[in-house]
Design a protein that fits this description.
Strand order of the largest sheet: 2-1-6
Strand content: 15-25%
Number of domains: 1
Number of strands: 6
Radius of gyration: 18 Å
Helix content: 40-55%
Number of helices: 4
Distance between the termini: 53 Å
Order of helices and strands: HEEEEHHEEH
């Protein structure tokens, strides 16, 4: 479980999309987008719980398969305290930080994303990388004013 939480926080996919009746938005999440900025105030986020659970399960089953294959076919895995304790500490820090971010009273939580969207482009990133917002007019040149 620690590998799941840590990898979910470190590696993600960004989605530049145009939701129906909303401004162009950067979503995050892999394999499904589960978080995006809120539109009602600048410091809020919108979380989509079903998409988050699917993402969490995808990461979990990925790590279960990797650990199972290594343990079964390569080398027997016997985790030592020197490895497991830092993993659990890092996992606790990631969960605490995520909980702090999610506890903002302005955030919106939806069971499922309540709107459709047109995906313009996507990409992958690590937490320490910044992604520049793509130019909207590159995908919709007909909207550009002269």
């Amino acid at each position: 479980m620690p590998l799941t939480v840590i990898s979910l926080a470190i590696f993600t996919k960004w989605w530049y999309a145009l939701p129906i009746d909303a401004p162009d938005t950067m979503f995050s999440g892999f394999p499904l987008p589960f978080v995006c900025p809120g539109w009602h105030t600048s410091m809020s986020l919108q979380f989509f719980v079903l998409e988050f659970v699917i993402d969490l399960l995808a990461y979990f089953f990925f790590w279960i398969a990797i650990v199972f294959c290594i343990d079964r076919f390569v080398i027997n895995i016997n985790p030592r305290k020197i490895v497991t304790i830092p993993l659990f500490i890092l996992t606790g820090l990631v969960i605490a930080g995520s909980g702090l971010i999610a506890s903002n009273k302005e955030n919106l939580f939806y069971l499922k994303r309540p709107f459709k969207m047109e995906i313009m482009t996507t990409g992958y990133q690590f937490i320490w990388q910044s992604t520049e917002r793509p130019d909207y007019y590159k995908y919709h040149p007909e909207d550009k004013r002269e």
